[in-house]
Design a protein that fits this description.
The protein has a 6-stranded mixed beta sheet with strand order 10-9-8-11-13-12, with helices on both faces. Strands 5-4-3-6-7 form a 5-stranded mixed beta sheet. A two-stranded antiparallel ribbon has the order 1-2. Helices cover 38% and strands 20% of the residues.
């Protein structure tokens, strides 16, 4: 599937007419997101104002296992991850991808041997990983989820619950015309500066953003010694809320029960799992989940059901299983804390995020998707 530098020609029967040149296909782009738990990659081709996925890869690698206690990536985690990255390298080579951006997030940022790991990856697979800063991770999450912004939304909170960290970014769109709001999110710059008093430099205002150093894996590790499913969940939820107490546009005393024209867009395995079990899906269906809206009350009811089921009951849920019965609760604790502080009638579930953000930014930079 490698692209040819020259335009191809379609051969027609000899009817006196000249051959008509075929329009050259747009080039392929690659995007890889190596997180604390998963290695995920997309290969796509721009098509008008969107892109078509040509190939994809997703595998749990649990790179951050034990990181909270040791401060290092373990040998077993590194081996699992490099095995997965070999597959990614083969796919990129097979499709002849010339433009790609391959990023590593919280685990590599936090681990003492994160840089050494990246060097080893390049030696053994030929892939050059970029350890991105939290603000870049937050920006890419916003861009990747921009398609789910509703035209009437004036305040949006994008929440990216990862394995090793959680990014929250609050944006004010009041001064952006409704028909341009999605575009404003897509064109976010790399510097996430909060708005200051005086005349704003852009109609889109970054009210606040934060990277909390806890995700589903690291928060669970923090409370691994707590016995009792419900006790552990409660402690995780309240602990996370302490980290976001000063985040947002207003203090607790001024916050209404539900802000008008306020939308939360959540991207992570946690939110897609909650939506999937809420819909009682027998097997995961991205088309049913991506873009689905839930209220704070519906999310709370589903979390309460998880607690009543207990670890053994959660194992039987098709979208959870034995490997995620505990992590879904640490992710739910994070989401519950956020919705306790900022309840909403519109939590939009996004089965998209960093990879889509990586693809969009590359394609726009190369002159596509305009």
């Amino acid at each position: 599937m490698a692209n040819s530098a020259a335009s191809k020609v379609v051969a027609f029967p000899d009817n006196g007419k000249k051959s008509i040149p075929r329009r050259k296909k747009a080039e392929l782009f690659g995007a890889l997101d190596l997180g604390t738990n998963s290695c995920r990659m997309l290969i796509a081709r721009p098509n008008g104002d969107h892109f078509d996925v040509v190939d994809a890869f997703s595998k749990p690698v649990y790179l951050g296992t034990g990181l909270e206690k040791t401060g290092r990536l373990s040998s077993a985690s590194i081996k699992r991850t490099i095995d997965a990255l070999h597959v990614c390298a083969k796919k990129l080579s097979k499709h002849g991808v010339q433009k790609s951006r391959l990023i590593a997030t919280a685990s590599c940022r936090q681990a003492r041997n994160g840089t050494d790991f990246v060097r080893r990856v390049e030696r053994e697979t030929g892939l050059t990983l970029e350890i991105v800063k939290p603000e870049e991770e937050a920006r890419l999450a916003v861009i990747g989820c921009a398609a789910h912004l509703k035209p009437e939304t004036e305040q949006v909170l994008v929440v990216d619950i990862g394995g090793g960290s959680t990014e929250l970014i609050w944006l004010d769109l009041v001064d952006v015309p409704a028909h341009l709001r999605r575009t404003a999110l897509m064109e976010m710059r790399s510097n996430l500066k909060k708005s200051h008093s005086g005349k704003p430099t852009s109609a889109l205002k970054v009210v606040d953003w934060i990277s909390v150093p806890f995700g589903v894996t690291t928060l669970l590790d923090q409370f691994s010694d707590v016995t009792g499913d419900k006790d552990q969940f409660a402690m995780m939820s309240w602990y996370f809320e302490e980290y976001i107490a000063q985040f947002g546009p207003m203090g607790d005393d001024d916050a209404p029960e539900v802000l008008p024209n306020f939308q939360i867009i959540g991207t992570s395995g946690t939110v897609t799992t909650i939506a999937s079990t809420h819909l009682r899906l027998k097997r995961y269906d991205r088309s049913a989940v991506d873009g689905f809206d839930m209220t704070s009350a519906e999310v709370e009811a589903e979390i309460e059901r998880y607690l009543k089921l207990g670890p053994k009951g959660r194992e039987k849920e098709p979208s959870i299983g034995s490997s995620r019965r505990s992590m879904v609760m640490s992710g739910s604790a994070i989401l519950q804390a956020i919705l306790r502080v900022w309840p909403t009638n519109t939590l939009t579930i996004a089965d998209r995020g960093l990879r889509e953000g990586l693809l969009y930014t590359q394609m726009v930079k190369s002159g596509y998707l305009k």
